[in-house]
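Methods, example record. To illustrate the input and output format used throughout this study, we show the complete record for Amino-acid acetyltransferase. The sequence lines were provided to the predictor; the line carrying structure tokens was produced by it.
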Amino acid sequence: MVLSHNDSVKLFRNSAPYINAHRGKTFVLMFGGEAVEDANFANIIQDIALLNSLGVRLILVHGARPQIDQRAIWRKVEPRFSEDVRITDKQTLECVKDAAGSVRSQIEALLTMGLANSPMHGAQIRVCSGNLVVAMPIGVRNGVDFEHTGLVRRVDVTGINDHLDDGSIVLLPPMGYSPTGEVFNLSHEDVATNAVKALKADKLIIFTEKDGLVDETGRLLRNIQLNSLYPMLEQAHLQQEKHSIQTIIDSLEAGVSRCHCVSYGQDGALLQELFTRDGAGSLISQSYYEQIRTATIEDVGGILNLINPLEEKGILVKRSREILEREIEQFTIIERDGMTIACAALYPYLEEQCGELACVATHTDYRGGNRGERLLSAICEQAKLQGLTSIFCLTTVTSHWFQEQGFVRATLDDLPAKKKQLYNFQRNSKVFVLTL
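The corresponding predicted structure is encoded as:
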């Protein structure tokens, strides 16, 4: 798809807040050997190079399972597993070192490429790797000796930060080294988890075969909370992603605020996820990505942008900036990445123990996601805390929605006396009441 000049300018301008937000932050990017073999991997490398040029501190953690399996076939080494973990004997370890070295060389070569007329022309990216992960053996579990299969003991935080401070990209393979000079085969999930924890990374980004995490019907789950991840570990349709999900859980529990799952087969998915409001994959956070909160004076502009189109159509009663500033504490908003996408206001009439629900609005791009219902629920909780027993609304075009939420038709006589005096007969609004 070719963008027009205006669309290109708009897209670039809209990405500016994310460029500023990501600059200087530390991201851990995790991808398996399957991603390296995908036809789109060269495009992913170009996008990684772009992130580096924008000042993002990048740690790439790669796997090599399919490459190890292939070399085991070539060497006629029979793969052995226990509890879904590879048993690494001396022959298998040679396959691991060969495969990991090959993948590392491929990634380094792609990041070094700077042909004229290519996206990476003039990038001059440095890639650093080495003995940055200290490992220890798994040992014997349930009578099974895992030999050269290991676990991460320690990540060299100082060494990695030195490279990042120099503007280099750090590459961590699925191997670790012990103080005794041994080499251990590690899972790249274990390496990524420990890198995130040790470096206090700002984000973990995982590349998966699918667009992200999906439900039983295959529908992409765009926004997920941490507490929703635990049952996913047992869901049959997500067993392939089980290790990735556990890595996300461990990272969020360690303090990372956001993790992302994006497709390694979709061109531009990484950039779309990081530099657009709606992203391309799954965003997993400790708390809900869209925050419901009481509005402050800084939100006046966002609310005006939201309600002005509805006021022009006569759906909402017009409010000036001065009125809105004076009444801002009555408003509750839903904020998404700094943008106000929905709002509602509660005006209490304490003598009658009721309140008016007013100025309910949702941005056109975000309708149909139960945001109105979430706002109504928050407003009802506020009303109860104030000792109100019912809330009412006046509407001209959205009566069906209010009825679906449990409101019932009422009359002018059911309104508080002060509100009845201000009723606009020209608008001829319908009255609805919800008992709390």
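Annotations derived from this record:
Residues 90-112 form the longest helix (23 residues).
The chain has a mean pLDDT of 89.
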